[in-house]
Design brief:
By secondary structure, the protein is of the alpha+beta class. It has 11 helices and 10 strands. The protein folds into 2 domains: about 80 residues; about 240 residues, Bira Bifunctional Protein, Domain 2 (BirA Bifunctional Protein, domain 2). A hairpin with a 4-residue loop joins strand 7 and strand 8.
C-alpha cells in the first residue's frame, strides 16, 4: 500500500505540474481527489488492510491527501494569475495613439441671432415667451383689427390648415406673423407687460432671395401706465445700437398696420457704407429692419385692458434679416437649405 501511495504521489504531482489551464485542473481534481478518484479509492481500501499495516498506511494516505490538496490550491492560484495576465495583455491599450477626432457642431445662424437678440431684450427687462404656430383666424387676424374682407389680409398671404382645434374652431391657419401672441399674452397677464415672443411664421409666398415661406419673427410688447412713443423709440434705438454698434443712427417713418396707431417702420443707417449708399442698402443709406407702433386702443379693449389707463407699444421684426445684414448674406434661402458649406461659416 505504501508503495502504491508513493507511485500515486509522483504520478499525481507530475501531472499537476504539467497542467496548463483551470479546466484541466478540474479534471485532475476529479481524477485524484474526487469521490471516485484514485486517492479516495485508496482511502476507502484502508479498512481491508491488516491492522498492523492500516495505521501507517492511513497516516501516509492522509498526508498525501493534504499534500495534493495544498499543491492543487497553489497551482490553481498560479493558473489564475497567468490567465489574468494574459487577458490584460490582450486588452492592452496604446494610450499614445492619436484619438478619433470628434467633429464639433455649431449653432445655426438663426439660433445664434435669436439668442443674441433675446439677451439684449432680457437685459432691458423683457421676458421671453413662445406660442403656437397653428393659429385660429381670431388671433391671427380678427383680434388684431383685421376682420374678414379687410384689404390688409392681402399683406399676409395665408396657408390654411384643414384642422379643427379642441374648441371646434376651423379652419385653422399657419400664423403669418407673431403678432397673435400679443393677444394671447394680454389675455393671460395684466400690465405691466414687457415681453418678446420669437418663433416661426409661415406665408404663402413666391420664394426669392429675400422671401421665404417659413421664417422667424420676434414680436415685442410693452404695456403699462404712461407708455409713449418715446419709450418705443428709445427701446428700439438702444436695441439697434447694442446689436449693430454704438454709432448707429435710426430713422422712424410712418407705416400702416391695423393693430397699431400710429404705425412706423424703423430703419438703421447702413453700417457698411455709413449712410453713403451701397449694394447692401440698395443705395438708400438706410436699411429697414422692423415694423412697430402704439398698440391700438381697440386691441387693448378686446383683452379687457382699459386704453384710458394703459398704453403700450409693439414691434415685429424678421429675424433672418439681421444676420443677412450683419454678414452680407444675399439669399435668405441659404438659411434652411441645410448646405453645410454655408452653415459651417457661423
Ligand atoms: C408684420 O408681420 C407685423 N406683424 C409686424 C408688426 C408687429 C408691426 C407689431 C407692428 C407691430 P411685416 O409683414 O412687414 O409685418 O413683416 C415683418 C418683417 O418680417 C419684415 O420686416 C421682414 O423682415 C420679415 N418678412 C416678411 N415677409 C418675409 C418673408 N417672406 N421672408 C422673410 N422675411 C420676411
Amino acid at each position: 500500500m505504501l508503495e502504491d501511495l508513493d507511485k500515486l504521489k509522483s504520478e499525481a504531482l507530475e501531472k499537476l505540474e504539467a497542467l496548463k489551464d483551470l479546466k484541466e485542473l478540474d479534471t485532475w481534481r476529479v481524477n485524484y481527489l474526487g469521490r471516485k478518484g484514485a486517492l479516495t479509492q485508496m482511502l476507502r481500501g484502508l479498512s481491508d488492510l491488516p491492522a498492523e499495516e492500516r495505521k501507517d498506511a492511513g497516516t501516509a494516505a492522509n498526508k498525501l491527501k493534504t499534500l495534493l490538496e495544498e499543491t492543487l490550491a497553489q497551482k490553481q492560484d498560479d493558473l489564475k494569475k497567468t490567465e489574468l495576465k494574459k487577458r490584460l495583455e490582450e486588452s492592452r491599450i496604446d494610450v499614445t495613439l492619436p484619438g478619433n477626432p470628434i467633429r464639433l457642431g455649431r449653432l445655426h445662424p438663426t439660433t445664434q441671432i435669436l439668442r443674441e437678440t433675446s439677451s439684449i431684450f432680457t437685459a432691458m427687462g423683457f421676458e421671453v415667451v413662445e406660442g403656437p404656430e397653428v393659429e385660429t383666424d381670431y388671433y391671427n387676424f380678427e383680434a388684431l383689427n383685421i376682420p374678414r374682407g379687410h384689404p390688409a389680409r392681402d399683406m399676409w398671404d395665408t396657408l390654411w390648415v384643414d384642422y379643427t382645434n379642441e374648441k371646434g374652431e376651423r379652419p385653422m391657419l399657419m400664423r403669418t406673423h407673431t403678432s397673435p401672441m400679443q393677444i394671447r399674452f394680454m389675455e393671460r397677464r395684466e400690465p405691466p407687460i414687457r415681453v418678446i415672443m420669437p418663433g416661426k411664421v409661415y406665408r404663402y409666398e413666391a420664394i426669392d432671395a429675400t422671401h421665404e415661406s417659413m421664417f422667424y419673427q420676434i414680436e415685442g410688447l410693452a404695456v403699462d401706465k404712461g407708455i409713449t412713443m418715446a419709450d418705443l423709440k428709445g427701446t428700439l434705438y438702444e436695441f439697434a445700437r447694442r446689436l449693430f454698434g454704438q454709432d448707429r443712427r435710426v430713422r422712424f417713418r410712418c407705416d400702416y398696420f391695423p393693430f397699431v396707431e400710429p404705425g412706423v417702420e424703423m430703419a438703421i443707417d447702413c453700417f457698411i457704407c455709413k449712410g453713403k449708399g451701397c449694394r447692401v442698402c440698395k443705395d438708400e443709406g438706410w436699411i429697414e429692419i422692423l415694423g412697430a407702433g402704439m398698440v391700438h386702443p381697440d386691441v387693448l379693449r378686446r383683452v379687457n385692458c382699459d386704453p384710458e389707463i394703459y398704453t403700450g407699444f409693439a414691434f415685429g421684426m424678421g429675424l433672418e434679416r439681421i444676420p443677412m445684414l450683419k454678414y452680407g448674406i444675399d439669399d435668405i434661402r441659404l438659411f434652411y437649405s441645410n448646405d453645410l458649406r454655408f452653415l459651417e461659416q457661423f
